[in-house]
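TL;DR need structure tokens for one chain.
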Amino acid sequence: MIKLSPKKWLIVGLVILILGYLSSGSAEASQSQATISFKESIAPTQVVLTLFDQRTQAPLAYALFELRNDQNTLIFSKLQTNNQGKIILKKLPYDAYTFIEIQPPFGYVSSRNTLHFTLTSKEPSLSLKMYNQKSPSSKTNPSLPQVGGHSFILYFFVGCVSLSASIFLLMIKNKNRKKRG
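>> reply
TL;DR here they are.
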């Protein structure tokens, strides 16, 4: 067993908690910004959705979308626009789909939160545009990033156990000092 002083156990616990928090959000962000392709589809389709500021025409990053098919089955949740305001989907099967904006970028409101489109052999590639407008209120509450997942729970549990152990050891040490002195 590793012998550490109570202060060092406290530091170890805090480091584990911080690492758990940092690791929980970064993996999700990189996955949600990737170009997504269906391997099992032989349809040479491509859909590019670009989100713009309605007034300035600047691309908007960090908006979250869902993609549903015409039977309202969820295909993707949490598709995130990249730094160019784009979501790129390749090799989707021919079908009718709907993009649903579930969270606009901070400081914006969705002008139109759904966009319907159909991929066919005659129209396999589409370039779609959506527009958001600035929020009328400058005091919009920011959305907090989503945290959680297995790694966060594990780091949180280990950090709490480490912190509890260090506090317990400090209490025992102080109790022994009082008995001696």
